[in-house]
User: Which sequence fits this backbone?
C-alpha cells in the first residue's frame, strides 16, 4: 500500500511494486511549500472528487483506481482501493493538481 514519507522540505509518495506496475508510474516527490490543503475523504467513490479519464493506469469501477486521471485544466494521481478512505493532497503547481491516495495509515 502507498506510503507518504516526510523528507524535510519534500514529501515522497512511495508505491509498492504492484502499484507501480498497475499505475504505470514510479514514486512521486513534491515540495511541502506547494501544498494547498490535505484532507481525509471516507468514500472517494461517492464524494464527487474524481474527475476526468484514466490514462495511463488501471481501473475496476468502485473497486480500485490506480494511475493518472486527466481532465481539462489538470491531472490527478490516484491510488484508490474499495472501502478505504483516501488522503487528498492539493498542490499550487507541479505535474499533478492533486494526489488522491489510499495510504497505510
Assistant:
Amino acid at each position: 500500500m502507498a506510503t507518504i514519507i516526510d523528507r524535510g522540505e519534500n514529501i515522497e509518495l512511495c508505491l509498492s511494486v504492484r502499484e507501480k506496475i498497475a499505475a504505470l508510474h514510479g514514486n512521486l516527490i513534491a515540495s511541502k511549500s506547494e501544498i494547498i490543503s490535505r484532507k481525509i475523504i471516507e468514500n472517494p467513490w461517492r464524494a464527487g472528487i474524481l474527475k476526468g479519464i484514466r490514462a495511463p493506469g488501471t481501473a475496476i469501477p468502485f473497486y480500485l483506481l490506480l494511475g493518472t486521471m486527466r481532465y481539462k485544466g489538470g491531472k490527478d494521481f490516484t491510488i484508490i482501493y474499495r472501502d478505504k478512505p483516501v488522503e487528498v493532497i492539493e498542490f499550487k503547481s507541479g505535474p499533478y493538481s492533486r494526489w488522491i491516495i489510499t495510504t497505510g495509515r
